[in-house]
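To whoever is on call:

I kicked off a structure prediction for a single chain this morning and the downstream step that reads the tokens threw a length-mismatch warning. I double-checked the sequence; it's 105 residues and nothing unusual in it as far as I can see. Pasting both halves so you can look.
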Amino acid sequence: MNSFQSKFQYYSKRKFFRFGVPFLLLMVGGSFGLKQFAQLRYTFSKKGTLTVEEAEKHGLLMKKPEEVTLETEFEKVKNIDIDSWDNIRGPRPWEDDTMPAKAGH
């Protein structure tokens, strides 16, 4: 027992065993730990796309891909008036949200 204690004291005073070994253990152990966390990303990732029938079964209404085009979205945005608008601040959590806040100072 005395020899084990003396060897432990000898090695515990060396810089490599005080700093190098814990560093190497952290790097190698961290690598294996990160591997497990990264594996979760691929295990639980979405495997496919949602079909229109599945979406309707869950109560979602999806447009057909032919209905949403760049030209139709441009026509919607073209009619929006972006020059005249009012800056209205939303209510803070402690404020009464029935009254809209006044814009300005």
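Update from on-call: the warning came from a stale cache, not from the record. Cleared it. Sanity check on the structure: The chain has a mean pLDDT of 82.
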